[in-house]
Amino acid sequence: MKEQFYNQNVTKKVSHVTFTVLSADEIRAASHMRVTTKDMYNLENRKPADGGVLDPRLGTCRKNESCAVCGDSFHDCMGHFGYVDLALPVFHCGYLNHIVKILQSICKSCSRVLLSGEKRDQYLNVLRRPNLSYLAKKALRKKIHSLAKSVHNCPHCNAVNGFVKKGGLAYVLHDKFRFSKGDALAKHIEQFAYMIEKMPELKPLVDKGIEPLRALQVLQLLNAIPLEDIPLLCMHSDRAHPRDLILTRVPVPPNALRPSVVSEVRAGTTEDDITAKLSDIAFLNRDVLNKQAASNRDMVALQQAWDILTYVTAQMINSENSGIPTQLLGSRSFVRGYIQRLKGKQGRFRGHLSGKRANFTARTVISPDPNLRIDQVGVPEFMARKLTYPSRVTSFNIEQLRRLICNGAHQHPGALYVEAHDGRFPKRMLEFSNEKFRSKIANELRCGDTVERHLMDEDTVLFNRQPSLHRVSIQAFRVSVKPYRTLRFNECCCTPFNADFDGDEMNLHARAEAKQLMASVKNMSTPRNGEPLIAAIQDFITGAYLITCK
Known about the structure:
The chain is α+β, with helices and mostly antiparallel strands and 550 residues long.
């Protein structure tokens, strides 16, 4: 395994971390190539096509190939990014709600924030404070948005501004004349006479004075926002300009993140969902460009191609968007977009990055045992022989630990390992040792050595049932080793764990340092309102009554 390089002569202190939206220029700067064709493979040699979504410059996902950029193998090269330039801008489905809020805050004619000079200066002075916290900025943004969206005539250009709402993934609706009916609405309807003739489905919107704003129009509005007004939107002109919320360039991830799977049943490969969607975007780009060139002849076809490009891009980001038409899904009912790879139990965070296993733990089915105390857990002897606790040898316990060593690993109570504190001998395993060897080790035992013994009665362990929703879902119990195969505890303790005995499983952690805080007897009542958590419940009460009644 390669060691990571550290520069020992340079020390730096991280002052802060900033999360921003990638701009089109930053996407291009981080990329090594531009995807220009929908073709994945050359038909002649069946190799990845140059300029396609599987271009060798994006890295390799095969063991016998090298990266075309850095020359490293599959194990050493993590891949390189590319990009696709969109023929027309589209809305980013993740930022659409934020775009609507920005449009509600600015004039749809001059792009100025809809605040008068006095209010504008007041909020700008507050936003310029250097130590303003995130929560304070969030509260200010909410106030500015609430004030701006209630203004119906721009204080800067006197243009009419109506209510803005989300109309779908492809456009935003501007109800321009909601608060100002009359001659202005009639003039507005006259302007769209030709479009209504070509697209009759738009007539209800035009008659109401509702203006659909597509991504290209919105991008022009966001580009025109003056630099001095951007802080009022709680954004930054250099790091997070409002125009970056509109997609004009789509990053293409490395091949290693979307590997091709070679089929053993049929010839060819099965491509990743992201690869398929990127290829569709490259194809639709060409389709939109062709229709754009002939836009004077068929405006409707251009709008439809633009809509499909928007839907496919949104599907690649989040395939569970409600605004994606079902006919685009085709025969496949589920597509793994970027969001699907990150969220949920099988996502990157919970499925791959979060911890899954710990040493010295056990898991099995639980059973009731009314003969146990409420702070005891019955541990199967099989588990007790596997779970160990490192005991430091002292003058008080040396004889007991010698007996455990002589018992060995297969007789309970026994021991699994012995480790000398001064290096007299290496760590010795007792599982495959004979009686003579164990006796020799026991005689050589000295104070300070460590014996990893079996779990024994009165040891403290942590007992847990998922999901761990509150503090009392994990509690400390005292061990009582039993010759059974299930974990047992008193049924009065079911409530804090929300446990029942219909096949539930629980976890055991072999050592608890928080004995005084997490013991079952220290958690008799709920921290929410003081109600008793550990008490006789349900069948236990009924059974006790039926057994003892005369």
